[in-house]
Amino acid sequence: MTTDLISDEREGLPEGWAQTNLGQLSPQYQNGISKRFGEEGKPMPVLRLADIERNQINTSEMRSIKLEDEEALKYKIGKSDILIIRVNGSADLVGSFIGCKDDGESLAYCDHFIRVRFADGIDSNFLTFLSRSRKIRYQIESNFVTTAGQKTVNQGHISSISFALPPLPEQIRIADKLDALLSRVEAGRERLERVPKLLKRFRQSVLSAAVSGELTREWRGGGDAEWEESQPIRNYTDLDVGYAFKSADFTSEGIRLLRGDNIEPSKLRWRDAKCMPAESLKDFEDYEVLAGDVILAMDRPIISSGLKIAVASEYDVPCMLVQRVCRFRPKRNIRARFLYIALNTEDFVRYLGDEQNGTQVPHISAKQILGFEFLLPPLPEQAEIVRRVEALFAIADRIEARYQSALTTFNRLTPALLAKAFRGELVPQDPNDEPASVLLERIRAARAMSGDKPKRGRGAAKEADNVKPDSPAPDDTAPKRRGRPHKAQTEAPDIAQASSYEDAVRQLEAQKAARAAAGKLEGAQVERGTRQDGLFENAEVNS
What we know:
By secondary structure, this protein is an alpha+beta fold.
């Protein structure tokens, strides 16, 4: 890719680092098990997407299915394995790496995941953190295949991910440092996320104290409130319900129409506003909303963020009241702002919840709204209550603004730390660490010796593109050979750890020479044209 976002220059890499891709690290892939139940075998917990929380495995509510021994062995999650989410509707989830730790349990995994195991010398925790970096996420998302709303990545896509690899000791140092720092970031975020709930409880406590008289007890001189007996709203205010304007007459310009969609808790919003020409509304002056009017949505009045009630401001007018939206017009004995406070209490929200009709679109009628009862203080005390509530709410608003600012900072911390780590700036380099280039050469040599030599050029790219996302990965078995089988072949000894690529080649050539000498003893029986296996590739011996 030529995009600046993912172009890591080979020049300028930290000391001992090397540019590579995941396909060069001898990955062993295995797609998860597809069956959802089994009739034979032993029960085994099977990991699902529902068991992943914040890129961690949660085993508290896992489901088990019966697996035969062969299946259990094939799909078992081992220590240092990485699970990659293969398919989901959420772009944020697909391609996520989940690190696996040996916790003593035997777990399998479903076909929403790809399990991958890498060669020795690659720290799985390092790769898990790496997958969360902006550059890697960009590469993953660039390879998404979308079908029926489901986004998918496959093994070929994963192998193509390019990145800078540090030496193994530095991989471990980076992973440990990130684990410590990001744990602190996450702990801070969890504490920060408690703020909105605390502010909501604070506001409700203020409202409850306001309508019970506790908020102004000191103002009254310490005595109990001597307010009017509880009466229904109809005794304090009139209620107007909007008009059913024809949607065919709606325009994009003109006087705005106040619909239920335009009402949020504590404010009006005008995104996707519908309008009508001013000249067509001359006969509907009774439905004109004025600044200071208290507005309530009658369809689905209660949403997750609160009650859809607001006070119209100067910015909101002029606008016209539409059906299924109501407006309160207080009488002389009640202030509009105090009425707004009384209608924001939990008592009124519970009352509406009990009175709502309908299942798909819950709604409330004007008659039901006017039946709500509450205590009414004298006008001077109403004014003092409004002043105190607004002052306390202003404090809560400032805290909420600081919370939003802090949350923005926290959201930037993790990407910044990851970027710093994978530029080689988070932990110091150690000149005594074995360079990553030597590690990569040893992996290549081991692959060559095993006959699992990676393809190069267009053929490799084509093969990667043709890997189907729902096709199972091959078993961890030796690759099939073409031609007639050997009569006998001794198992190749493990290659000793080499200090360089040249050293590895010398060791391999020595083994090859030893095998050639052994083969000459039986050479008299070797027929011309017999296919023989070389150490680095299969070649046909022609006479």
